[in-house]
Records
---
Amino acid sequence: MNIPKCSIITVVYNGESVLPLTLQSIICQTFKSYEYIVIDGASVDGTIDFIRNNQMHIGKWISEKDQGLYDAMNKGLALAQGEYVWFLNAGDRIFDEQTLERTFAESPPDADIIYGDTMIADDKGNDIGPRRLKPPQNLSWKSLRDGMVVCHQSVIVKRSLAETYDIRYKVAGDYEWLIRVLKKAKTAYYTGFYVCRFLEGGINKKRIIKALAERFGVMVRHFGLLPTLLRHFVIGWRFITYVVKNRRF
């Protein structure tokens, strides 16, 4: 049986308080066919010291200034040597210690993309609740007409399909990247279980207006103006309904 190798990539900047959560979730995995790559953006807190003190668990790492989040992620891709790549940024965690083993044991060997459910968590490691958008059973690039229907940190992609991120985007580059990857993919497998605990309050939530504007531009680019306008009525109604019901977004 051919066991694939997974390159897990973490981008971090001044993440001394949350990077340990990510690292611990990785080193406790029962599945050991992975490499861990950390891309630090020249942090000025204790992040670099933490990385140095844990080099035995980190296959490759660099610390240098970058041109933003997606430039840093491209650096991680350039170092990745696994058959699959998985981005878990500082504070994000693999769901539990058997997640990787179960994921690759149950996924078809020819899966181009593997994706699963997402639990939202705080910076103390406590679960808040499931992500608002649950991924579809059959994910395709057209699924993303409804927005980011699957969490980027809950998607594992074949390295051969993983193009570089467009660094012109500041907050919606992962959305645009996933559309391009899905256009190339022949098979996308849904695990049906949680694969990631995503740290609440990421860059998109802090800069939500910028994120919405960029996402709209991405949708127009890939889906056209009129379809994008029409879909936004549906997206807006779903969002309002969710916020009213759950009192969070």
---
Amino acid sequence: MWILDSRSGKLRQGPRPLVACDQAAVGLVNDKIYVFGGIDDMNKRYYEGIHAQVFDLKTQTWHVGPNLSVKLACLNRSVVTPSLGRKIYVRGTDRDVTIYDIKDGKCDKIIPADDFSSGDMCVVDNVIYMYYHNVGLMWYESKEKQWSVVHGLEFNGFFNSIAIAEYNGKLAFLCAMIDLYGSSKVAIRGRVEWSHRLLSDIPSNYNLKHFTICTDY
């Protein structure tokens, strides 16, 4: 585990986890970091012992977390918001979104929209958003269990790879800021506040995995 101080830019090595794992999900809930799923980093197979481990930011110590109710071997995205029952939402290689309950380890699933290559996801004001490369930004209606398009968005240029995050109640792309409005019971629209290419020399085959917003300065 490595810890980066965003103010000073210094990187230091943190306490060693209980087990070494690869392709696991990482989610932050209050003052604890949850690491779960993945495969044994040594044997490259699903780890049969500890499925979840928790790092306490206050005590700087690791302890065992609630074991998952299902096997989650390969995970590549994760997002968490306390306003959604303190559950961690995870993207897996099977494209499904798994919901991990930190209280008892129970896992539920959300099925993405059919036939679309989905990218990153995040939660803004209790609504799940996911960017689909072939369609655009979509939001999930939990009661009807269906995905709908966020209308009204126009970007400057084409993005080969997308990562999104929540920022002060708005949705931030790496190269754009979106103001969302409407009702999750009816329809949601978006307005691009700004959209611009931040870096000039980016290879065409880049793959943007994730980014984090730091506002505590």
---
Amino acid sequence: MLNDTDIATPLIPIDRQASLGELAYSSLKDSIISGQFVPGRKLTVRSVAQALGVSTTPVRDAIVRLVAEGALVNLGPKTVVVPVLTIATLDEVTKIRLALEGLAAFEGAAHIKDRDISFLEEAQNRLTDAMDKAQYTDVLRANKAFHFRLYAASEMPRLVTLIESQWLRIGPSMNDLYPEFAIHRRGVTNHQRVISGLKRRDGTVVRTAIEKDVHDGYQRLSKLVLSRRQEAASP
């Protein structure tokens, strides 16, 4: 049973000067995309409102939007759950991600600024440091920051919004990449290739590295999803 205090850690209280509904939505969306909630996690309107320091009305509005986007599933009038990934969803999302994120990476390489590359290097350092300490929640935050700074450099905001919609479906399941990805350093190698390609403004190298990053994640997650489905079907 989820206590009202259980949700406090992943969410940051929001500034009341802006639209509370929009900020509640942004905070929840960011936490889902960056894997701060695992699949199967139940959230109540009250617990989210308490964590954000707002009333239940803007939180309810935010949750309604996220349910409509497929990021959350209704369990009742005041409770939602982070959906468990199916192989059909994983296959579909991965195909879309390869197309969209490959394009964003290629365009990002054409428009990247030196300050963006510095940010990516710092994010990668945070990622590897957290990985060394087995702090996988921090790894996922740094990973999200890395990818979306690169995609923002594409100067194609509508494309970035489309990518976010796919990460809403896949973000929670990225928890299942660890600790294996920490042991084999797959993501680290891919990110290093991204940075190297960006310094040369080589869009093809950057695109290939991002596509490999997506594909590596798919291979790990697909094995887990299929294994769990087989276990569930066993007598």
---
Amino acid sequence: MSKVAFMFPGQGSFEAGMGRDVAFAVPEAMAVFDDGSAASGLDLKQLCFEGTAEQLVETELQQPALVATSLALNAALRARGINPDFVVGHSVGEFAALSAAESISPAQAIALVRERGLAMAAAARERPGSMAAILGLADEVVESLCRKIVGVWPANYNCPGQIVISGEDDAVGECCTEAEREGARRAVRLRVSGAFHSPLVARAADRLRPAVERIHFADPRAAFMSTVTA
């Protein structure tokens, strides 16, 4: 028998108007936006359905908007009898995955990522930076470049031949240039507002930790695949 996996994206995977069509077509999806708005203090319908791409770049808005849209799609699929056997999320998408596995509610997930976004935005303002995806180089080559260039680090190992770097703007730019000289197929700046998954925003964990500790995480009802431990 075939198995179904739901996969949820991380920051950068957004567009203006996201979630609007499914929300107006499926009441269960609209309910996610309503409940998430109440839990986060944001008007998620206005933000997702009518907000601009420029607004959504900001991490304190993008994270709850992205997770709300992800969970609205999850609700729409479930309303049609499609349930996951496995769930996995990339970065902030792990919160959506936990909710899809019924470990936390959609409202809890959206409230948590709102706090996560605020914490990361504050950390990014203190120590600004950016991120980029390096395509077509071995991990070892990118790691070597990051060791040579001060202020940039490997951040996400997406798949063989694709690694995301994160750090200070100039250091990320230098690493992109050097990666292309080493034969990278592309070096693509990400649509994010900070050097996430790097030491520059490590302080965000201190603010987020109390919010996480207040949540009771139930045993997942679908297999949750961690992107840290697999």
